[in-house]
Write a structure and sequence with these properties.
Layout lengths: L2 H31 L38 E4 L2 E4 L10 E6 L19 H12 L4 E4 L7 H15 L3 E6 L5 H4 L1 H5 L5 H9 L6 H4 L7 H22 L9 H4 L15 H18 L3 E6 L13 H12 L1 E2 L2 E2 H17 L4 E3 L20 H20 L1 H4 L3
Parallel strand pairs: 3-4, 3-5, 5-6, 6-9
Antiparallel strand pairs: 1-2, 2-4, 7-8
Helix pairs in contact: 1-8, 2-13, 3-10, 10-12
Length: about 400
């Protein structure tokens, strides 16, 4: 073997040994210092359950990396219910709402899974309209204010023929969060994410998991962060205290709602009217349905499970007072407002007379409840899809 080949092999083995040693030492240091680390050399591939662990630039949170069944795909946080067929003439339906509508957030519950009311609605639609596509833009904790923003940003790009909101229950957040009452278009999560931008990143924000040599790369990032922090500390004047978040930037939430507009029912009315006008302007029809919720309306539980949920719900109290009294007062006004709108359907009493369980908890219907909701919503949607004026719309 020539001297050149020997030198080449020695250099290659030395480099390989150095990389292996560096990764192992980095792993050991990370373990001792409690830095984020992973399996040496190649990080583990993690399949995430369906959580809202992503970041949305507008709302602050979104669906992250997530396992979903074959009938549901996720694109930019929107769920598409499909059967593998696509047709240019097939109708598109957009659904909006909170966690009851959300395609994934309740999927870990055995009595719900991925079987939301939009999924059952998609099943019904495909029976009558081949290739029908239901796009689920619902997201946990959305109120009508976030639905309106989602319709502006994402809904108009989808060019749906029908836009459906199932809401009402989350307008209750105005009673729990005074800031949200004054700034209904800014979510609590969005406020938190934006506030963090006013502060310096911590070590956990600097270190990110890498696929290859994760520990070495994390140690390099941690070292860079420490050196930068030390340099900033040395460069600062000793008598000047470190600036806090309020000194670095001013967080603006927009103009506050005051007077009548701070009332959640008036805000809901304005939002659904705006969504109806926006949908109509873009050649679609808009429908809003008041969501049934335990403790409101004519449903009297006969099932032991729903009775237990009823008892728990009656005990809930907050700074706003009794949850049961507050939610009933809210729905009383929402139902009055709904009757004045020709595109609103009140489903508050939908579960009246049901003997089996229809709730997973006091706010979320189970599979049976979701099926009943889809069954009640579908005739309204079907009539619109069969109307010549809508069918002929581009």
């Amino acid at each position: 073997m020539s001297e050149f080949k020997k030198t080449l092999l020695f250099t290659a083995f030395s480099l390989l040994f150095a990389v292996v040693a560096l990764e192992l030492v980095s792993f050991a240091v990370a373990e001792m210092k409690s830095f984020p680390n992973d399996r040496p050399f190649v990080a583990r591939t993690v399949t995430h359950d369906c959580d809202l662990d992503g970041v949305d630039a507008l709302f602050g949170y979104a669906v992250g990396a997530c396992r979903t069944p074959d009938f549901l795909t996720l694109r930019e946080g929107l769920g598409f219910y499909y059967d593998g067929q696509t047709q240019a003439s097939a109708p598109t339906i957009l659904t909006l709402g909170g966690s009851t509508t959300d395609p994934v957030v309740m999927s870990k519950r055995s009595d719900i899974g991925f079987d939301t009311w939009p999924k059952y609605l998609a099943d019904r639609c495909r029976e009558g309209f081949e290739g029908c596509r239901v796009v689920n833009a619902g997201r946990a904790a959305f109120t009508s204010s976030q639905e309106l923003l989602a319709l502006v940003r994402d809904g108009t790009a989808l060019a749906p023929k029908v836009v459906i909101s199932l809401n009402g229950i989350n307008e209750f957040y105005a009673f729990k969060d005074e800031i949200f009452r004054e700034h209904p278009y800014v979510t609590k999560q969005q406020r938190a994410v934006t506030a963090e931008a006013c502060d310096d990143p911590g070590l956990g924000d600097v270190i990110a998991h890498s696929r290859f040599l994760p520990n070495t790369r994390s140690l390099v990032r941690a070292t860079q962060y420490k050196l930068q922090t030390m340099a900033e500390a040395k460069g600062a004047a000793p008598a000047t205290p470190a600036a806090g978040p309020k000194d670095r930037c001013h967080l603006t939430l927009g103009l506050a709602r005051e007077g009548d507009m701070a009332d959640p029912v008036k805000q809901w009315t304005q939002n659904v009217r705006s969504m109806e006008a926006l949908a109509r302007t873009n050649g679609a029809r808009y429908l809003v349905f008041l969501q049934p919720t335990l403790g409101v309306g004519k449903y009297v539980p006969a099932d032991e499970g729903d009775l237990a949920l009823w008892d728990e719900m009656m005990k809930v109290r907050g700074e706003y007072g009794s949850y049961h009294e507050t939610i009933n007062a809210l729905y009383g006004d929402l139902r009055v407002a709904c009757r004045e709108l020709d595109f609103c359907v009140d489903l508050t009493d939908l579960f009246e007379g049901q003997s089996g369980p229809v709730y997973s908890d006091a706010r979320h219907p189970n599979r049976s409840g979701n099926q009943l909701q889809a069954k009640a919503i579908w005739p309204e949607v079907e009539a619109i899809l069969k109307a010549p004026s809508v069918a002929a719309a581009p």
